[in-house]
Each structure stands twice: as structure tokens, then as C-alpha cells.
């Protein structure tokens, strides 16, 4: 991008901190990204300012060949949009939907004396400001206006304390954009050729996908182990409080009993240790019986003080994790709500790596904590949370309520919807709690010994925790991941006061069997945590990354768990074998460090990109540059990639020693094995997680013929009738004889002959039918549809019963009426049909409705009942206002209210579906006038639509 830095530097027309000239008639144009933010800050600035939004980015690299300007179409680099032979100069084009916005901003510039670029206070915001500068080419002085909260005081302070555009931040962001383009446009075509069309690779998305795939591989390799112990209820006597408490057997004759953490993923003990004993079921039952009516004695009591410090205020990643755990929000949903709260002045900027609070925020939190909980609950001195952030973005303040005096959730409740209120309340609570006193208490660990009648000395353990001073826990308790065995910080388990050698009795002794579990699949919160731990990507991009890998079909959700698809297995397998460095965790994190050097001005963008793409002395040993560069790596690897090998994922050997593999084909994955030199294949259900594909299930799938289950022969036509599994569910069909086509027929003649050939009858199975048990009689009934019920004696029209995509119905001419059950298709009489037609036709919601499949309680946003219904495209959840189709992996039986509200929230965020417009009638004689009026309405509608779309934007595009 030769000349770009010069143009940015040339825009530095004002010195840092130059105040606004408030002279009479002096007008300034302030440009922000969001229409919501523009409406909010305009009153704060007053009449001397014109505030307008750019509605996000106004230009980008070309999205396709159609976007490339004519003068560049012949260039070899035009496909990339980056001139790799000329300093990696990027070709930026104004996106088609932003051309009118650019014209509008240019017109506004004609009537002002200064331009304030007030985009977001991060790298991407800095880059948007630079793109505005490059596109608008203002002839008036330009200033960069930065603020971290939308309050009157903050906005006025930002207008009075502007700065220059930060070239280094722009360079850092644009380097990322160009790097991602080079990566995607070089590697993605390899996936198209070797795996499947329309796939994509990405610098961070591919690594995130690998993390999910590796966890599934761990689960597939996992072998469970079983172990036993004994749970006991101990009695400390009448004077004790509490009298009874739980304990568990932990040792026998001095040998510690094995627990889940002692086993490896192969089901064996991690290390050979004679001091660890695996208790079998028989031994556990024998010992439990032998310990009955025996005396027990306290062998040791250890009591320690307990202290828990407050959690740091939220930053982007911890906000996403906590909202996911506590409220079951997706990362995208969290950031969408947070952006609305920020733009409307409720919280500070929500994309931040910092946990620090300003002095005024600390003062506000301490003051409010004192008022609400008392002085004793506030930390003796202000708390400041600093952290060494790996790959930190420029430091911002933590996410907190805006202003110098925080509004309580009760004060804003009437202004926010339910989701906004819940997120604001959580941010407010966390901020207040961060300045409160430590929680204090005591922990107690007790060992209890008893001798079995068979002679073994059995040691039981009991532990308790008592909180004597709640401190910050009065205001906020962090949610825990229950799948990993987490325990809430405010959980208490009291034990009675016990002394060494105190006698106890056991009122209950129960043998307990346990089985080790595979590592839990990642959820969105835990994946965010893992990405942050590895230093991969930026917290501000995690939401878009997780959304992208789901949209691309690499990952799908089963409940809240992220499950990789077989396509993801093939793609990651290819990347690991041939582009290992591109999905290496340390390399990806190290690249962030190198990009930070550009942000700090320690590295020149063009030189770094050249080394990365063409090769050069950069990064650590084994980096892409030192391996010869991305271009050489891709070009030298393509021919070596065996597509069949890459798309074959070995699973296990069957009982006869045949290797069973999953093949990823162009039309989806399937099972395959070689038997006596022949290939045997089976379809794979889309919603079957990879780790659940066992040998037993594989055999069942192989046993289902792809050509279908033969049911018999139609006695009328003589055609064979088969039942098959299809993309849209099971169905029955007839096998027609092959048509004869002359060998010398042309391709066009063959195509024409096939098109004219008769089509086989087909019929979808009813919901009450099963492909394994359907009979020939049932199939012939299905194939007999549509069924003629009779003729209307008045009109003479034929009435038929048909099974359509909307369900069973009657049809008479163009008049259709729904039937309540599928069985009516075969049983309804002419008399019954005429009664239905005699009733007034009901449409929409007034029509006869099927009962809901499941009721899920009240939606927290709409306050209306949520139910699952059966629709034409499958089951969906609705609150009466919005309908959300259940996703792959969502099962009606296990669907929770939290998951249902999440689906509805995502649907609600997208807004209502656009209504189809009726064709406009051509006017007779007022063409000119009508066209003018229509144009005005269309422009207004377009502007309104753009405004609504921008207002609902949740996260920035990466």
C-alpha cells in the first residue's frame, strides 16, 4: 500500500489535544459508526455539530470479481485484491450498499469547517476512521475524537481533547486484514480441490476448529474405567449440630482408593503405584456389609481459615464466558446486547482486554457498595486489577456501568428489555463487588477410621466449608462450569464441631460405583477461555469466530456443546499434514506478538507481509517466513495431497478385522469398508456426533441397504416397492424399469429421453411409521395418494385427500382444507369432507391448530409462553411472536427453556422477515409524478432499513 502512510500522516492537520473552536458559525461534522450512537451523542454536542453515522465500514477489499474496478481486472493480483509485487498495496473499494452513504457524507462535508472522526476506540475503529479519511478526502481540518462511554461528560471531554490519527494502529489493523485475505485466498482453494467446494480456511477460525476437533478425537479414543467406594452418613451424637454429615471411603489398610483423576484416557491407571488400590464392586459390597454396626473414631481434624478475593471487573472474554455460564447466552448474543448498552450510554466500551478501573469508577463503586452493604463490606483500600495480557490490545478500561455515578439496575429497569437488563445487572454487580472486602470463613478436613469385621482398616473423609463473612459474595457470585466439577464460591457444607478420637456411628453405608467420563466437549464459554489461554486471536473477535465456524458447517451444537462435523475432521487433517504451522497453536499466538510489533511501530508492515508471503528472516524457527513463505508452502503442497487419504477418517476394525472409515464426499460423509474386495457403504445420520459412532451403530448402518429395504411387488403394476432413507426423512417408492436409449444417441437426446421418462411414485412415511417395520400394504397405501374422496354434488368438483409439505389436506379445485390427522387421508368419507367444506374457511392462526409438542415455560424477554410445534420444515419453538426452527442437535425431548429462549433471541435479533411486495401497477398518465414520489419513498425505506440493520449489529466483522 505505497503512499498510504503518507496520506495518513498528511491528515495530521491539528495538534494533539486541540480544543474545539466554539466561535460563532463554526460547524463540525462528527462521524460515528452507528446510527444509535449518532442519535445519542448529538444532543450532548449541541448545535455547532452535525452528527452522522457511516453505518460500519464503508469500504473493503473486493468480495468477488464483480467488485474489482475495470482498470484492475487484468492484473494478476486482482483476485486477491492485494498487489503482492508492489509493497502489498491493497485495493479497497466502496461496497455497493455504502455508495449512497459516501455521497451523503461528502455532501455534509461541504457545509462544515472541521471533520471529527469519532469511530470506536480500538484498532478497527482507527482503521474505519482512516478509510473515511481516504474515501471522503476532506478539504477541512480533521481530528480524531475518542471516547470510551456515551455520556454527556465523556462526549464533551472527547470533543475538547482530540488527537491525530494513529498510523501504527491503522497499520496493525490493515496488516491483519491483508494477512487474513492472503491466508484465506491461498489456502481455501486447496480445500475446494481436495475436500469439498465452498469451504474456507482462516488464520484464527481454522485453529479454533482444530481445538474442537482435537477434543472430539480425545473423546473417540477414550476408554472408560470403573471404580467403587462407599458413601456413608455419620452420626456425631445428639449434641452435635448438624448431627449427621456425609463421608466417603478414601483408603483401605493405608492404600488410597483410586478416583477418576487417577485413570488415563485409555481406562488404565496413569502410573503404576502400589499405594493406589482400585476397589472392585464385590469388595465394596463386602466392606459395606462388614462395617455395619461397627464403631468409628475421628483420627484427625484439620481446620484452616478461608479467604476469597473478589473477581476482577469484566473484560470482553470474561463477559462472554460469564454470560454463557450464567445466562446461557451465546458469545454473539452477549456482544450484541453489550453493544446496545454501550451505544445507549449504559456501559463503557465492551471490546477491551483491560481489567483496570478509572479513579472515578473506583470511587463510584466503593461509594455505592458502602450505601448498599455497609462500610464493613467495602475493601479497606481501593482495589486495582492489573494483568499481564498476552497479546493485549491497546489498554482500555474494564467493562463497567458508565458515568461517575453508577445507576442501579432498578433505576434503569424501565428503560431496558429483559436481556439488556440481565446483562447490565451482571456488569453492575461485578463492578461493585470488585471493590468489596474479601469473603472469609473456615474449611475443615476430617479423617474417620473404622475396622471391618473382616479385619481391614477403612478410612473415610469428610470436608466442610463455612463462610463467616460474605464480603463481596453479598453482591456477586461467579457462575461455575458444572461439567468440569466446579463448585460455587458461596457454597457451604457445614460439619459439626469434631475432636480427635471422638466416637461416631454410621447410620448408612452404601457401595457406590463410578465410571470415568471423557473430557467434556467445548461450550462457547469454555472455547473462549481456551482461545484466551492459548493467546489465539483477540477477545473482540471471539464471538465472530465461533459464529463463523458454525456457519461454515465445521461445528454444530448439541445442546450447548460444540460438536465438530466430519468435514471439519477432513479439513483439519489436511491442514495438520500439509500446513501444520498454519494451525499450530504456538505459531498462531506468536504471530499476534509480531503483529503487535507493527502496532507499536517496531516493524514495517510491507516488509513483514513480504517475508510472510514470499519468505524471509522473520519470527521463530519454523515460522512460515523461514519455511519459504505462504505462497511457496501452498504451491509446493497441492500436488502432494492425496484427496482420498485426506477424506478418509479411520474409526476402528470390525469383528472380522475390516477397517471401518468415514469418507467425506462431495455430497456429505458416509461409512465405508472393504469386504472381500468389494466396497460396502452406509449413509451417516447428520445429527450423530462422531464420538457416538460406535462399532454397534456402524454395523446397524451397514445393515441398512442403500438401495432400500425391499417390501414386495405391487400386484397392479408389477413394480418392486422399496423403503429408503432420504435427505428429508424415510419414504417409499417404486423401482421402474430402465428406459432403453440407443447407443448412438447424442448427449442432448439422452438427456431429453431421461426427462420424458415416467417418474416413480413416492410417498413420505407418516410420523407413526418406521422404516424397519413398514409393510407392503402400508407402502401401497402411501403410494395411492392422492386419494379421490368423491365429487361435490353441487359443483361437480372432485375432492381428493393429499399429503403435502404442510401436512394432510383436502383439495377441491383451488380450495384446500387442512386435516387434523394423517390417518384421515384414508378414512375420511365424502360426507365428512362436505361438512368440512361447509364450514367457513379459516386461515392463519385461526385455523385448526395442532397441539404443541412440548411446553417450556415463559420466555424471559417477551414474557409469553414458549412451546415447541411441528412445522412444515420440522419442529420449531415459538412464543407467539417469533418462530425459531430447532437446529441440528436440538432434540425435542431434551430441549431446555434456556436453549429455547436463546433460539428465540437469535431470531428476534435478526428482525422480522421482509414482506413480499405486490407488483406495482403501472400508472396511466401520471408517470413522471409517480416515479418521483416512489423514488422518495424507496430512498426513505432504504435509509430506514440500513439504520435498523446497523442498530442490531452485534459484533464487528473480523
Short description:
The chain is α+β, with helices and mostly antiparallel strands and 958 residues long. The chain has 27 helices and 34 strands.
Provide a descriptive summary of the structure in words.
- It contains 27 helices and 34 strands.
- A hairpin with a 5-residue loop joins strand 19 and strand 20.
- Residues 1-22, 390-395 and 916-958 have low confidence and may be disordered.
- The protein has a six-stranded antiparallel barrel. Strands 2-1-7-8 form a four-stranded parallel β-sheet, sandwiched between helices. It has a four-stranded antiparallel β-sheet with strand order 19-20-21-22.
- 33% of the residues lie in helices and 21% in strands.
- The two termini are 20 Å apart.
- The protein is of the alpha+beta class.
User: What is the distance, rounded to the nearest whole angstrom, between the alpha carbons of the first and last residues?
Assistant: 20 Å
Percentage of β-strand residues: 15-25%
Task: Give unreliable regions as ranges.
Answer: 1-22, 390-395, 916-958
Q: Average pLDDT across residues?
A: 85
Rg from Cα: 34 Å
Counted by DSSP, the helix tally is: 27
Strands of the largest sheet, in order across it? 9-10-15-14-13-16
Estimate the global geometry from the Cα principal axes.
globular
For the biggest sheet, the summary is:
6 strands, antiparallel, barrel
- What is the total tally of β strands? 34
* Helix content estimate: 25-40%
Q: Which structural category fits the helices and strands?
A: alpha+beta
Amino acid at each position: 500500500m505505497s503512499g498510504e502512510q503518507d496520506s495518513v500522516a498528511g491528515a495530521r492537520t491539528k495538534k494533539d489535544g486541540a480544543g474545539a473552536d466554539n466561535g460563532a458559525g463554526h460547524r463540525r461534522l462528527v462521524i460515528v459508526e452507528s446510527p444509535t450512537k449518532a442519535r445519542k451523542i448529538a444532543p450532548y454536542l449541541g448545535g455547532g455539530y452535525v452528527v452522522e453515522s457511516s453505518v460500519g465500514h464503508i469500504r473493503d477489499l473486493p468480495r468477488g470479481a464483480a467488485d474489482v474496478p475495470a482498470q484492475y481486472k487484468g492484473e494478476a493480483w486482482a483476485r486477491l485484491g492485494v498487489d503482492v509485487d508492489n509493497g502489498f498495496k491493497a485495493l479497497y473499494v466502496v461496497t455497493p450498499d455504502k455508495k449512497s452513504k459516501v455521497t451523503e457524507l461528502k455532501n455534509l462535508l461541504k457545509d462544515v469547517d472541521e471533520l471529527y472522526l469519532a469511530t470506536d476506540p480500538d484498532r478497527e475503529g482507527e482503521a474505519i476512521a482512516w478509510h473515511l479519511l481516504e474515501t471522503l478526502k476532506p478539504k477541512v481540518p480533521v481530528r480524531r475524537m475518542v471516547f470510551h462511554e456515551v455520556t454527556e461528560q465523556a462526549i464533551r471531554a472527547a470533543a475538547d481533547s482530540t488527537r491525530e490519527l494513529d498510523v501504527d494502529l491503522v497499520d496493525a489493523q490493515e496488516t491483519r486484514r491483508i494477512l487474513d485475505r492472503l491466508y484465506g485466498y491461498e489456502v481455501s482453494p486447496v480445500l475446494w480441490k481436495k475436500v469439498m467446494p465452498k469451504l474456507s480456511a482462516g488464520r484464527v477460525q481454522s485453529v479454533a476448529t482444530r481445538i474442537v476437533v482435537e477434543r472430539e478425537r480425545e473423546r473417540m479414543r477414550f476408554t472408560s474405567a470403573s471404580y467403587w467406594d462407599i458413601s456413608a452418613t455419620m452420626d456425631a451424637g445428639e449434641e452435635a449440630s448438624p448431627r449427621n454429615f456425609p463421608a466417603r471411603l478414601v483408603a483401605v489398610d493405608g492404600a488410597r482408593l483410586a478416583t477418576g483423576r487417577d485413570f488415563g484416557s485409555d481406562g488404565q491407571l496413569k502410573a503404576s503405584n502400589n499405594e493406589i488400590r482400585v476397589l472392585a464392586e464385590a469388595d465394596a459390597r463386602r466392606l459395606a456389609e462388614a462395617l455395619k454396626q461397627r464403631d468409628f473414631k475421628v483420627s484427625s481434624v484439620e481446620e484452616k481459615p478461608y479467604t476469597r478475593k473478589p473477581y476482577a471487573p469484566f473484560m470482553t472474554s470474561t463477559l462472554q464466558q460469564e454470560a454463557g455460564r450464567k445466562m446461557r447466552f451465546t458469545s454473539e448474543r452477549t456482544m450484541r446486547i453489550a453493544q446496545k448498552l454501550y451505544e445507549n450510554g449504559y456501559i463503557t466500551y465492551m471490546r477491551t482486554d483491560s481489567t483496570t478501573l478509572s479513579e472515578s469508577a473506583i470511587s463510584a463503586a466503593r461509594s455505592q457498595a458502602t450505601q448498599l452493604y455497609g462500610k464493613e463490606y467495602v475493601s479497606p483500600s481501593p482495589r486495582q486489577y492489573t494483568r499481564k495480557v498476552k497479546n493485549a490490545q491497546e489498554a482500555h478500561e474494564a467493562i463497567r456501568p458508565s458515568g461517575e455515578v453508577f445507576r442501579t439496575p432498578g433505576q434503569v429497569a424501565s428503560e431496558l428489555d429483559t436481556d439488556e437488563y440481565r446483562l447490565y445487572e451482571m456488569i453492575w454487580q461485578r463492578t461493585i463487588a470488585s471493590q468489596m472486602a474479601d469473603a472469609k470463613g473456615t474449611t475443615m478436613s476430617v479423617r474417620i477410621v473404622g475396622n471391618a469385621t473382616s479385619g481391614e482398616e477403612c478410612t473415610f473423609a469428610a470436608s466442610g466449608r463455612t463462610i463467616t463473612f460474605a464480603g463481596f459474595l453479598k453482591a456477586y457470585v461467579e457462575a461455575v462450569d458444572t461439567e468440569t466439577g466446579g463448585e460455587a464460591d458461596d457454597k457451604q457444607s457445614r460439619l459439626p464441631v469434631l475432636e480427635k478420637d471422638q466416637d461416631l456411628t454410621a447410620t448408612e453405608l452404601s457401595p457406590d460405583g463410578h465410571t470415568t467420563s471423557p473430557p467434556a466437549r467445548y461450550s462457547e464459554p469454555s472455547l473462549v477461555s481456551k482461545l484466551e489461554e492459548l493467546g489465539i486471536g483477540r477477545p473482540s473477535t471471539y464471538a465472530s469466530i465461533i459464529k463463523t465456524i458454525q456457519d461454515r458447517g465445521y461445528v454444530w451444537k448439541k445442546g450447548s456443546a460444540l460438536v465438530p462435523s466430519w468435514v471439519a475432521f477432513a479439513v483439519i487433517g489436511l491442514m495438520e499434514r500439509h500446513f501444520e504451522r498454519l494451525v499450530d497453536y504456538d505459531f498462531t499466538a506468536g504471530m499476534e506478538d509480531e503483529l503487535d510489533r507493527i502496532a507499536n511501530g517496531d516493524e514495517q508492515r510491507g516488509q513483514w507481509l513480504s517475508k510472510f508471503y514470499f519468505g524471509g528472516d522473520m519470527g521463530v524457527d519454523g515460522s512460515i517466513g523461514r519455511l519459504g513463505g505462504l505462497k511457496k508452502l501452498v504451491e509446493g503442497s497441492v500436488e502432494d495431497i492425496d484427496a482420498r487419504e485426506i477424506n478418509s477418517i479411520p474409526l476402528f476394525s470390525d469383528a472380522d478385522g475390516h477397517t471401518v472409515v468415514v469418507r467425506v464426499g462431495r455430497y456429505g460423509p458416509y461409512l465405508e469398508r472393504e469386504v472381500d474386495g468389494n466396497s460396502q457403504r452406509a449413509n451417516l445420520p447428520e445429527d450423530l456426533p462422531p464420538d457416538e459412532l460406535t462399532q454397534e451403530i456402524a454395523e446397524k448402518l451397514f445393515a441398512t441397504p442403500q438401495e432400500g429395504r425391499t417390501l414386495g411387488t405391487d400386484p397392479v403394476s408389477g413394480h418392486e416397492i422399496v423403503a429408503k432413507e432420504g435427505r428429508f426423512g424415510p419414504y417409499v417408492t417404486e423401482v421402474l424399469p430402465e428406459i432403453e436409449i440407443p447407443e448412438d444417441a447424442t448427449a442432448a437426446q439422452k438427456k431429453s429421453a431421461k426427462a420424458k421418462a415416467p417418474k416413480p411414485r413416492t410417498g413420505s412415511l407418516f410420523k407413526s411409521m418406521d422404516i424397519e417395520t413398514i409393510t407392503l400394504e402400508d407402502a401401497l397405501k402411501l403410494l395411492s395418494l392422492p386419494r379421490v374422496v368423491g365429487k361435490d354434488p353441487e359443483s361437480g368438483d372432485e375432492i381428493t385427500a393429499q399429503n403435502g409439505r404442510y401436512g394432510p389436506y383436502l383439495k377441491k379445485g383451488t380450495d384446500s382444507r387442512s386435516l387434523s390427522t394423517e390417518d384421515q387421508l384414508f378414512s375420511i368419507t365424502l360426507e365428512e369432507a362436505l361438512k368440512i367444506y361447509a364450514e367457513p374457511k379459516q386461515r392463519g392462526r385461526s385455523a385448526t391448530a395442532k397441539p404443541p409438542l412440548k411446553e417450556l415455560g415463559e420466555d424471559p424477554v417477551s414474557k409469553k409462553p414458549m412451546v415447541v410445534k411441528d412445522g412444515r420444515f420440522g419442529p420449531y419453538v415459538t412464543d407467539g411472536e417469533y418462530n425459531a426452527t430447532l437446529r441440528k442437535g436440538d432434540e425435542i425431548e431434551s430441549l431446555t427453556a434456556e436453549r429455547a429462549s436463546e433460539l428465540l433471541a437469535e431470531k428476534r435479533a435478526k428482525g422480522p422477515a421482509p414482506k413480499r411486495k405486490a407488483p406495482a401497477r403501472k400508472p396511466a398518465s401520471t408517470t413522471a409524478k409517480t416515479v418521483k414520489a416512489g423514488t422518495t419513498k424507496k430512498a426513505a425505506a432504504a435509509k430506514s432499513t440500513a439504520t435498523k440493520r446497523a442498530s442490531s449489529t452485534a459484533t464487528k466483522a473480523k
